[in-house]
Amino acid sequence: MCGPFSSVKEQTLPHYAERLSNAGYTVLTFDSRGFGESDTAPNRPRWHYDPNEIIQDYCSGVSYLLTRPDIDHERVGVVGVCMGGGYAVSVGARDKRVQAVASVAGGYDIGRTFQKFLGVDGFAGYFRRINDLVQRQYETGEVQYVPTIAHTLSAEVPVAAMPNDEAYSYYDRTHRDHAPSWSEKMAATSFGPYFIYNAVSHAALVAPSPLLIIHGTRDLFLLPEFAQAAYDAAIGPKQLVWIETHNHIELYDQDPYVSQAVAALVPWLNRHLGAA
Question: How far is the CA of 204 from the CAs of 10, 92, 110, 140, 209, in angstroms?
């Protein structure tokens, strides 16, 4: 399993992993390189968030599982939540050791999502501010960081990874309660690769492995229209499940939403991986 943008393994995933374990599955969660308890990749600042590296770490998790005598090599699936859901699609596209792919509240087309929020010119201007931070790092050698969360953008906080109250409420709460290794800052170099990440273009390549997409009907940050686009692009066995939600983070750790997602997820895994 792989979790939300910027998250560490103590956030979100335990709510799914425990339920999947109770259903008979072995579940691996991990901190991607540079986050939580994981080491930083060579020549990368800490808290540099690159979708391509995280996808590789996800595949490395599959490699690790296949070294274990208690794992059936023909019954390995990937399940992701939020950005981990988009990355699950990418893993399914590139790693044919994976027999089933499931995405919950996934992030599929990040640049177009931000462009819809900010408008074409607004997004270009925002991206340019990030480009300028990366240029400053290039010229000075000093790593440039931006806040991971903020209530909103302002003159004092012109750039933040997640500048909205919904994300702020979730990460501030979980950081204090049970995720002390979560970082309040991220490297500015993260956002070039992040903004051009697009799992919709990977969805067809998941075939012939089956793909399950679970998404909230109301999600102001990872838009339902891109979940639909990823589903439409998939050409193998596929299923799309809508859950009536009020926001994005309800599918992180709140009931009845997590239980509803798992109620769709477990029978689907049983069907495609063989009953656990």
Answer: 31, 10, 18, 42, 10
- Euclidean distance between CA atoms 13 and 251, whole angstroms: 11
* CATH of residue 73: 3.40.50.1820
DSSP letter at 25 equals -
In a domain, 4, yes or no: no
Question: Is 166 among the domain residues?
Answer: yes
CA distance 230 to 11: 25
Beta-carbon contacts of 108 under 8 Å, excluding residues fewer than 6 positions away, are 86, 89, 198, 199, 200, 222, 226, 227, 229, 230
What is the distance between the alpha carbons of residues 195 and 182, in angstroms, rounded to a whole number? 21
Strands 145-147 and 185-187: antiparallel
- Indicate the pTM of the whole model: 0.96
Q: Is the pLDDT of residue 276 over 60?
A: no
Question: What would the pLDDT profile of 95-114 be if each residue is shown by its tens digit?
Answer: 999 999 999 999 999 999 99
